[in-house]
Amino acid sequence: MNDSPSGRQNLLEKPVILAIGGFDPTGGAGVVRDFLTARSLGADARLIPAAWTEQSPAGVVGIEPRERRALTAAIRWAWQDAAAGQGESVVVKIGMVPDGPAAAAIVEGLDGFAGAVVLDPVLRASSGGALYTGDMAALVELGRRATVVTPNASEAALLSGMPVRDAQDAAVAGAVLGSRGWAAVLVKGGHLEGGDAVDVLVRGGEVRRFQARRWPGPSVRGTGCALATAIAVGLGRGLALEIAVSDAKRWLTGVLEHPVSVRGEWHLPG
């Protein structure tokens, strides 16, 4: 973590992002979107699929989880190999986790890893259909391993067991999840009530809000994946968490101005 007053001095130029998550064949979300985001922000990326999915604009067709031991071994090898590089900062970004055994495999694979971990707890596809089939307890345990967890409103509601409609609800849900051992919770504001999109960060009893204009255009896939990956890049460069979140939100707001139409869906550019 950078301790300079601005949080921006002596930053590492090219962190390595280890992206763990689902493989979406459309490339609109999942580890492919993580790769595209990291590269567009000047970071390196290594992809570790936790599951292979079949998705289309109509929803999720099928999910094939990776075998638990193979997932654990792949994660352990990836971070140890990346950490052996000269002068590189390694950050783990976790997206879609298919089930409880996969969540446990990730925790096991990260044993001994000392870098930052960003968890984006993807429960459902934006096009419809469940992506996580385990119980919430396994994800809560995985969240205890994270530096910051980035649920959207519906995910925060399911994980906390309370309704999340507006920014005030988000702050309360974040505090509930913090009481379960999560170091920091960023409830994304894309689906919260209100004129602007307000993301709510809860950490150590403190609440900070990050406000931006709400995207007035069509629904765009992969925004949650991209935001979490952008936060991971900022942390990998040594930014304080609040600055990493602010920079990531500003970047995402900008790229949303230029979505790309792909077979009936809107994707982020790149």
Describe the structure.
The chain is an alpha/beta fold and 270 residues long. The chain has one domain: UDP-N-acetylmuramoyl-L-alanine:D-glutamate ligase (3-Layer(aba) Sandwich). Helices cover 35% and strands 24% of the residues. The chain has eight helices and twelve strands. The protein has helices at residues 30-40, 68-83, 100-109, 136-143, 153-160, 167-178, 223-236, 241-255, and strands spanning 16-23, 44-56, 59-65, 90-94, 117-119, 148-149, 184-187, 197-203, 206-212, 220-221, 260-262, 265-267. Strands 3-2-1-4-5-6 form a six-stranded mixed β-sheet. A three-stranded antiparallel β-sheet has the order 7-8-9. A three-stranded mixed β-sheet has the order 10-12-11, with no helix packed on it. A hairpin with a 2-residue loop joins β8 and β9. The protein starts with 15 loop residues before the first strand and ends with a strand. Mean pLDDT is 89; it is low at 1-7.
Tags for this model:
270 residues, alpha/beta, 8 helices, globular
